[in-house]
Write a structure and sequence with these properties.
Elements: H1 5-13, H2 15-40, H3 45-54, H4 59-90, E1 100-103, E2 106-114, E3 121-128, E4 137-138, E5 146-148, E6 154-155, H5 163-177, E7 185-186
Parallel strand pairs: 3-7
Antiparallel strand pairs: 1-2, 2-3, 4-5, 5-6
Helix pairs in contact: 2-3
This protein binds zinc ion.
Zinc ion (ZN) binds next to loops.
């Protein structure tokens, strides 16, 4: 394993290693305390270290240790949650590369829209394609027929499957194809 940012992040997140770090921190604090005491009392570091190691534990020592542990774990968990959220936000889902499929005799194209304040995506701008030229078929008038944007092909609405049925099928197919990402595909 390479020693880089990921390596430290892994140790930082690991439940066992983070406890080792906590104990290590306590050791470092004890060493600093012994060092300061050796300067203040003008004694050797070894003597001060022995003093620290053999000193009587008072209640306030325990309280300070508890506070240090709590602060350490709070910081760690805060970073952890932030990391996870960032990962979730930045995650590039594989299903987002799927923007066309053939269903019920037509090719269909769509785009993905992110659902606000979530990591979910929904199918939008769903259109059938013209069987003659692959142009986009749209319904220009509310009660009119499908018309091709490229050629003059017109298809009666009744011969084109309903978009809501197609959309449900697309979502269903993609959820089956990408089970790991199924939760993020919504209708
Ligand atoms: Zn056409």
């Amino acid at each position: 394993m390479k020693i880089n940012k990921d390596f430290f992040l892994k140790i930082w997140r690991d439940p066992v290693w983070s406890k080792v770090i906590s104990v290590g921190l306590l050791g470092v604090i004890a060493a600093i305390y012994a060092f300061i005491e050796s300067i203040v009392k003008d004694s050797s570091f070894t003597n001060s270290a022995i003093n620290v190691l053999t000193m009587q534990i008072k209640l306030w020592h325990v309280l300070v240790a508890v506070i240090i542990f709590v602060v350490f774990y709070s910081i760690r968990n805060l970073y952890w949650i932030k990391d996870l959220t960032n990962q979730e936000m930045d995650r590039q889902y594989v299903f987002l590369s799927e923007c066309e499929t053939e269903l019920k005799g037509f090719m269909w194209i769509w785009t993905w829209s992110k659902v606000e304040n979530s990591s979910n995506y929904k199918v939008t701008d769903l259109h059938p394609l013209c069987p003659i030229c692959n142009g986009t078929l749209t319904i220009p008038d509310v009660l009119g027929d499908y018309e091709c944007g490229k050629c003059d092909n017109e298809i009666e609405t009744q011969y084109v499957p309903s978009k809501s049925v197609i959309k449900k099928q697309i979502i269903n197919d993609l959820r089956n194809k990408y089970p790991d990402e199924a939760l993020f595909i919504v209708s």
